[in-house]
Amino acid sequence: MQQKTESLVYSISMHTYLRFSEVAQQCGFEVEGLLNHAGLKPDVQLRNNERLPLECLLKVFDHGMTHSKNNWFPLALAESFSFDFFPEVETFLATSSNLKEEKWLGLFEQIYPDR
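Structure (tokenized):
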């Protein structure tokens, strides 16, 4: 379970830390910078069932998109975390006729036009 350890710092499990490390390595940046930017801290006592607040996830994406050198960050993140196993994402993908038509991707492209 995700726990807030101090102001704007959230604990993550070692499983999540290792996944973020894999993504950072694939994309060519240091995981410490990602964690610091997003206000995340690994905690060996946490189980792998935490849910991060939206503010943290947005910071993760911001850092990943601006620092990715070797890979497109969202694809590396999705591959590492296997988002296709989440029912919400599976439903979204199954019901979307064209991913480019989806509003959140349109907004994402407006924020990061060069990606």
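Strands lie at 4-6, 9-12, 40-42. The chain has a mean pLDDT of 78.
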